[in-house]
Amino acid sequence: GISATLKKKLDGISVKPERWKRIVIHHSGTSLDTVASMDRYHRNERHMENGLAYHFVIGNGVRTKDGEIYIGPRWKKQLDGGHLHSVLQNRTSIGICLVGDFNKRPPSAAQLEAARALVAYLMGRCDLSKHSVVTHRQINDRPTQCPGSKFPTKSFLATLP
Description:
Elements: H1 4-11, E1 22-27, H2 35-44, E2 56-58, E3 69-71, H3 73-76, H4 87-92, E4 93-98, H5 109-125, E5 133-135, H6 136-139, H7 153-158
């Protein structure tokens, strides 16, 4: 599960559970990404005033700690995501991004474990079933490879409570 410290932080954030309908899993596309580099990219290249498009980022051990869960400002402030093409979907979808390019290599065991624990926590907090957990590719209204061909979608979804 998630650490007591992280759980305390998450529990301290005021959430309207009924607002959130889905949890969407992404990969960042390169193994060198950091929360700061993604935030800069989303602000400067994608022109997102709220920066980092995801609610959560899970590190991969390169420039971020392997399996470390970073809580983004969008979750802290309960803002719409910026992680999907559809504005409507962003309004009700929690975005979780695992750092890496999962077309090249699969996520680390620590990343998958952290993602499972975080998703399980969010399912409980927002009263969601495992059927509300999807990958970017499964939901996006434009074709995308995200979260990559080597992300173990079936086995990941099968392990959810």
